[in-house]
């Protein structure tokens, strides 16, 4: 159920504010502060933004859903409850059909670095995407990508036959259809509920990035992990801004935000993958078994990737997207461009990656005009 704008603001005791009169603004994320998507891109980022703007743009970071629950982050951002927020597009398919269309292309290229940079460029420059953000009262600041999704299970799951009938936590959309394709039962729940599901037996596997073994303590309830790469998640945005707030900023302040988002776009990917390595190592030391997918499971995934594009297009049309085929073609071109740009680049060199994000994505933007329409 959606709250009306006046009621939403009244419940939280907040009102829309313009940068000229506000001393502190709200930054919202529903992951915990220790997660790589929060500690760098929100906590450290907010500190640097405050320093570089001499305190004129200061954010108070709310994490773990303490300001807005996941499903309400888009509305809360639009209504000014938060001035910047993370949002997972799967919660609002009707409001963000284009963001979900490209977000469900997660099987086209499963390189998280490529998809983080590509989804950011697309969200900042594609006319159809920009129109969608504006229609929702927000300004897109930058994207992200999780690391590859794996099956983390409380029982052995190695082969296609093993998956049959298993209850898999999925992120919705293409992941749900993939579960059905391989004969599993998709269960759509937030990441915060994965632990309980595995612990109580209502889930057999959680399909998510493997950092969740630590960040969501899944290593306590997981006994095996299958390394089939089941896409990676990047739908929505890592930074979206309330339109009124953004338009009240000066061009110099927007340039600071561009620079710091470029840095954290890179840093987040480096940190996320490092967290995955650490979490998997810790879990295997604790007894978790690693299974490679059998040939039948790999073949089933390959067949799904080819077949599912028609479902993506049909779903997008049903939600009112014009020319989804063209949008997917344009997105694939951006993905392929980033696959080339990142070829041979050290994936652990945050500064080099950040410079690439800055020069190729953010520097071409006009801080005077971006997000003002």
Task: Explain what this protein looks like in three dimensions.
The protein has 373 residues and is α/β, with parallel strands linked by helices. It has helices at residues 5-12, 36-52, 73-78, 97-103, 112-125, 127-135, 160-163, 173-181, 194-200, 212-215, 243-247, 251-285, 295-318, 324-341, 350-362, and strands at residues 25-28, 59-62, 84-88, 138-142, 149-153, 167-170, 185-188, 205-209, 224-226, 236-242, 289-291. A 6-stranded mixed β-sheet has the order 7-6-8-5-9-11, sandwiched between helices. The protein has a 5-stranded mixed β-sheet with strand order 2-1-3-10-4, sandwiched between helices. Helix 2 (36-52) links the parallel strand 1 (25-28) and strand 2 (59-62). The protein is globular and about 60 Å long.
Brief sketch in words of this structure:
The chain has helices at 5-12, 36-52, 73-78, 97-103, 112-125, 127-135, 160-163, 173-181, 194-200, 212-215, 243-247, 251-285, 295-318, 324-341, 350-362, and strands at residues 25-28, 59-62, 84-88, 138-142, 149-153, 167-170, 185-188, 205-209, 224-226, 236-242, 289-291. With 373 residues, the chain is an alpha/beta fold. Residues 1-22 have low confidence and may be disordered.
């Amino acid at each position: 159920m959606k709250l009306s704008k006046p009621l939403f603001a009244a419940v939280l005791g907040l009102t829309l504010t313009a940068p000229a009169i506000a001393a502190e603004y709200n930054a919202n994320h529903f992951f915990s502060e220790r997660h790589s998507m929060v500690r760098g891109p929100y906590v450290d980022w907010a500190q640097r933004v405050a320093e570089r703007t001499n305190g004129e743009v200061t954010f108070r970071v709310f994490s773990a859903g303490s300001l807005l629950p996941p499903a309400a982050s888009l509305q809360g951002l639009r209504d000014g409850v938060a001035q910047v927020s993370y949002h997972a597009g799967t919660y609002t398919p009707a409001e963000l059909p284009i963001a979900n269309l490209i977000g469900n292309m997660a099987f086209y290229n499963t390189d998280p670095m490529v998809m983080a940079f590509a989804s950011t460029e697309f969200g900042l420059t594609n006319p159809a995407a920009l129109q969608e953000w504006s229609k929702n009262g927000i300004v897109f600041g930058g994207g992200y990508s999780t690391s590859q999704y794996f099956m983390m299970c409380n029982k052995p799951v190695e082969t296609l036959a093993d998956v049959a009938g298993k209850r898999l936590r999925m992120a919705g959309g293409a992941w749900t259809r993939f579960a059905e394709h391989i004969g599993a039962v998709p269960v759509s729940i937030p990441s915060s509920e994965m632990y309980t599901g595995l612990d109580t037996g209502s889930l057999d596997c959680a399909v998510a990035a493997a950092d969740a073994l630590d960040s969501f303590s899944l290593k306590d309830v997981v006994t095996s992990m299958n390394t089939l790469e089941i896409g990676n998640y990047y739908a929505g945005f890592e930074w979206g801004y309330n339109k009124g707030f953004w338009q009240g900023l000066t061009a110099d302040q927007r340039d600071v935000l561009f620079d710091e988002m470029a840095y954290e776009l890179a840093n987040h990917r480096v940190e996320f993958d490092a967290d995955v390595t650490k979490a998997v190592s810790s879990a295997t030391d604790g007894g978790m078994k690693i299974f490679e997918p059998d040939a039948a499971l790999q073949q089933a995934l390959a067949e799904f990737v080819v077949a599912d594009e028609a479902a993506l297009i049909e779903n997008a049309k049903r939600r009112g997207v014009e020319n989804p085929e063209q949008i997917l073609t344009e997105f694939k071109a951006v993905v392929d461009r980033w696959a080339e740009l990142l070829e041979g680049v050290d994936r652990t060199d945050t500064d080099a990656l950040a410079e690439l994000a800055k020069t190729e994505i953010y520097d071409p933007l006009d801080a005077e005009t971006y997000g003002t329409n």
